[in-house]
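Example record

The entry below shows one chain as it appears in the dataset: sequence first, then structure tokens.
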Amino acid sequence: LCSNNNPYASFGATLARDEEQNLWSTPHDVTHTEADDDRVLYNMIVVRNQLAKDSEEWQKLNYDIYTLRQTRKEVRSRWKHILEDLGFQKEADSLLSVTKLSIISDSQNMSKARDILLKLSEETNIFPTSWELSERYLFVVDRLIALDAADEFFKMASAVYPKRPGGDRADEGPRAPQS
């Protein structure tokens, strides 16, 4: 039972290490795309791991890392919710999956995808106020353009996550579309 030949002996430690490095994609994803926001998170993790555990600085960085991860999960959840409402229940996860192998389907769509993403940022509450636009969602919008669903996505996002004048709240849940 104490043999060093057990391939599962370090399984928990490997999972924990992978989770620390898994900034966005699913665990063990070798095609993971590293974007600017991934580097920020990675740098925060590296700095935190060099600090004395449970020091004030460590706790602050740990909280910031947790908050950033939760924000990312919430944004992804919002996108998935809208995609599912548009009828992409089975395809939502694959539409949101961005890897090193992802490409823009048509270079002519690039400016339209950027415009729609910017419009989503400015006119809806799908992203938190402090969110810096991620290139990851540019790929998703490009896919929606290719599926001729980008305009419907924007309409649904506007209805479900409307921008509120005088202080939008990113922590509120989805709203039902208004008829």
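Notes for this example: Residues 37-161 form one domain. Residues 1-33, 167-179 have pLDDT under 50 and may be disordered.
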